[in-house]
Backbone:
């Protein structure tokens, strides 16, 4: 991450500030003002001269392909901005799927007086917000489905409490809508998930609520041992028209065998992340986790050069990206709308 200050300033002159209302894809964003560029220059000079750098604690709840993509993109984006160790100090910690450990990591960040905690996933974000409350440490979250309910972010257009970030709420509902487009007569939907997996709890509840709204019966298949996933899928497929899985690391451990069970039963399996589509699930609607990591880095840079959290609206994805497994679609003889297929990713 060794780039010149001039490169940083050139980028900052064209950098778009996240301002106004809660951002949607395609919104126009105003450029950074001259005074903000001046503040950026001062921040860069401070780092270059060896004074105290901007301190970031980066916490990830656990290793999992989508979360890894967000973290890696965050780091790469900062490299693009030209922030070296003199201007930015990052302490990365992984909680290994342990909620208590995530809390301890965030509490230490606050004790160490980090300027910012960047929390990847809802479990990490909850712990970060809890630890940072009442301190001077601010929080940027990545991939939280419902910031209002999960993190008490009441006004996404002008977030208070030192918390802002990237939300991914539309994806669960969009997956149900996609299933209904493929089968308008769908009446029962299986839910295959591990209730102890912290990553998918909010999405599972959103799925239940939306299916109730659509008058679809939800049949739950709770999975705690990945080795039992294929059998659980077989049992769900015997009763349901389709099966849905939120982001879930337990299911992911045996996704290929679970996908084979769904295919053998001739039932579509809809999921919330591309890694499961790559393993054989029919389709997913998800955010681009790498893009979310980039956006989080842009927010971190703006905070580092002097912006305040209320000036950085929560970024809310207007729609997710559809990904389709071509072999599964062919095996199931599924027909998805042409407008969906035209913009889908294929595996």
Residues:
């Amino acid at each position: 991450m060794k780039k010149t200050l001039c490169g940083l300033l050139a980028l900052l002159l064209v950098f778009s500030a996240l301002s106004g209302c809660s951002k949607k894809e395609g919104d126009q964003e105003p450029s950074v003002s001259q005074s903000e560029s001046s503040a950026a220059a001062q921040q860069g000079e401070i780092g270059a001269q060896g004074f105290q750098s901007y301190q970031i604690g980066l916490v990830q709840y656990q290793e999992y392909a989508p979360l890894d993509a967000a973290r890696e993109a965050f780091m790469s984006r900062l490299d693009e901005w030209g922030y070296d160790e003199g201007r930015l100090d990052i302490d990365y910690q992984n909680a290994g799927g342990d909620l208590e450990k995530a809390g301890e990591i965030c509490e230490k960040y606050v004790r160490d007086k980090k300027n910012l905690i960047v929390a990847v996933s809802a479990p990490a974000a909850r712990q970060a917000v809890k630890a940072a409350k009442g301190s001077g440490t601010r929080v940027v979250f990545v991939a939280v489905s419902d910031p209002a309910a999960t993190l008490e972010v009441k006004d996404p257009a002008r977030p208070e409490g030192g918390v802002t970030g990237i939300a991914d709420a539309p994806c669960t509902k969009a997956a149900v809508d996609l299933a209904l487009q493929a089968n308008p007569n769908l009446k029962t939907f299986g839910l295959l998930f591990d209730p102890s997996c912290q990553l998918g709890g909010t999405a599972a509840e959103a799925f239940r609520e939306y299916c109730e709204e659509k008058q679809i019966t939800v049949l739950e298949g709770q999975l705690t041992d990945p080795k039992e996933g294929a059998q659980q899928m077989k049992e769900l497929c015997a009763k349901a028209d389709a099966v849905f899985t939120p982001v879930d690391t337990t299911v992911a451990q045996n996704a290929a065998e679970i996908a084979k069970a769904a295919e053998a039963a001739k039932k579509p399996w809809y999921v919330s992340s591309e890694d499961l589509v790559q393993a054989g699930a029919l389709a997913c609607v998800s955010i681009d986790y790498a893009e979310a990591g980039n956006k989080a880095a842009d927010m971190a840079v703006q905070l580092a050069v002097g912006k305040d959290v209320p000036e950085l609206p929560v970024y809310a994805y207007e729609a997710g990206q559809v990904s389709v497994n071509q072999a599964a679609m062919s095996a199931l003889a599924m027909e998805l709308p042409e407008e969906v297929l035209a913009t889908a990713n294929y595996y």
